[in-house]
Amino acid sequence: MAQEARLQRGIESGSASSGRLPQPYLLFLGDTVEAGFAKTAFGLRDWAPDLCVGEFALPGAQVTVGLPQMRPADAADKGARALVIGVANSGGYIAESWIPALVEALEAGLDIVSGMHAKLVCIPELRYGAERLGRRLIDIRTPPANLPIATGLKRTGKRLLTVGTDCALGKKYTALSIARAFADRGVKTDFRATGQTGIMISGGGIPMDAVVADFAAGAAELLSPGAAPDHWDVIEGQGSILHPAYAGVSLALLHGSQPDVFVVCHDPSRSCLLGDEEFAVPPVEEIIDLTIALGRRTNPAIRCGGISLNTSALDASEADELCRTETARLGLPAADPIRRGPAFDALIDECLKA
Amino acid sequence: MAQEARLQRGIESGSASSGRLPQPYLLFLGDTVEAGFAKTAFGLRDWAPDLCVGEFALPGAQVTVGLPQMRPADAADKGARALVIGVANSGGYIAESWIPALVEALEAGLDIVSGMHAKLVCIPELRYGAERLGRRLIDIRTPPANLPIATGLKRTGKRLLTVGTDCALGKKYTALSIARAFADRGVKTDFRATGQTGIMISGGGIPMDAVVADFAAGAAELLSPGAAPDHWDVIEGQGSILHPAYAGVSLALLHGSQPDVFVVCHDPSRSCLLGDEEFAVPPVEEIIDLTIALGRRTNPAIRCGGISLNTSALDASEADELCRTETARLGLPAADPIRRGPAFDALIDECLKA
């Protein structure tokens, strides 16, 4: 399967994080009652189904990602090597009520992988359990040690970065979808993850939001090292260059990634920034212009490859129509990377054109 | 003295860092043989002379900032409350050979203040000495705990930010000089420090380069809190929006500072970025345009107040001529904030105009 091959290649080629993650996974859903708080688990199911042997929820949970339900010992029997915390709650905490289940996973021979703000190693029961049982506690949000200061120097190989008009509107899904399409066309491609779910999917990467500011561009340089001239790194974007809280991360990632091509991700159903009614979503054109004005500093040849529209709020014919009108208006291919179809093929053509 | 009053007010008003620094200082020069590596000490001598009781160098040092030379016990007798490491060596390390002198300071009753990358508290002799003697070890580069995510919301009061075409060309000196000129005109003003030397001068601030990327804009918001409508915060800039390593920090500081006015700092004698011949210094106009395009996101009224030219490589008449031609070319006041004179008065007028 192309996706698995691509993902495995991503792992084999080595990542910038502290080594490969133990895979496959058992997805832990905790006692989650709302699907929105299990987006890490859904992301893994959607993008790395071959890495997921099952799901494990506590009594009271009302969310399923549709995988076989099993306890840690059964998952270990089926080959799982780690339990992944598939929950992304507000605050990023590890609930007291989860700890017995997490200890059960350690006792079943599984490592634990977490992208929460709270650190596994700071929970005494888990630290003690892992030491006693010889298991690993892997906190994805801990960036690699000894990150370099960026040099800005041009590296070999090609790079594509997804950028956005806001947070949480499809930059990771777009990058994964483009990486898969590149691989399907026989292009040598690695997906480069910059956030917790992306890192779990690809088995490596750097959590950009956790890096100390002075080293953020350096981390981005490390993430997509020099490669063969015909090799593409497809890099997961973060935040937005016009987001009042996260623009610094977005700019460091832009400069360090030195993309040849960027794709602007946009949700046409969103008028204000997520959770922030004070700020309008900026026009796609403004993001294109600013990304070129800033990005050409480390890659003078930077260009926009098209627009990724999150049309999940529209039906199929509305989505098609919007992609057509936006393509005409902007003079660049606009497509939904989840719906795919001819518009998406045109976007891939534009990204790969010499 | 206006400067002392302003600095004291800066301290009294409370800073965003972990409390007031113990002052006045004894400036420690280590065994430095080159003035460039003692820029923290020179900055303190120039901008906070009333906070410096003397200097203390080891045998072999070839640098003096011109203050009375004394050992820690004499400095304590003269009222010093802390020894400040006035050295900024490459790598930011604390040399083995300094440790006996630093222990001597602790024994004399002084705290130690350091802006080095290496942490005082990680040196066993110092940690043990401080515990034994009840002294404080203050690592300036440790940012405050529990920084918030930025909201982007408008705060009351006025703000000025210095921005740059490169690093290390006068953003701190320009901010200090403007803050002093504002205070001299009777304007309520606080200098807000974002780097180690600025923090030592003003007694508070946040080391922006040491903040985790996701919290950088939030740190900048915390640094210049809401204030009286006629109060000005003059904020020390960092890096450059077009610096390949540090632009993320610069953008986070711009968004979080939400300046009403910015002043572009430029060194006309520099053609390439400091220590980086691959990158030309960008034109002042490009920095103005990008700063407005990005900064209006959190302050739609942002405007450029003028250009601060570092003319240290020119003689007085050349400097005057350059300020005149740049003022005419850019249509904004251009002045050297160290030389001052009528051009600088015009710059201050422009910054303060309603």
UniProtKB/TrEMBL annotation, chains A, B:
Origin: domain of life: Bacteria
D-glutamate N-acetyltransferase-like N-terminal domain sequence ranges: 64-143
UniProt lineage: Bacteria, Pseudomonadati, Pseudomonadota, Alphaproteobacteria, Sphingomonadales
SUPFAM superfamilies documented for this protein: P-loop containing nucleoside triphosphate hydrolases
Domain D-glutamate N-acetyltransferase-like C-terminal: 149-342
Name recorded for this polypeptide: DUF1611 domain-containing protein
Organism: Sphingomonas telluris
InterPro entries linked to this entry: DgcN-like (IPR011669), DgcN-like_C (IPR035086), DgcN-like_N (IPR035402), P-loop_NTPase (IPR027417)
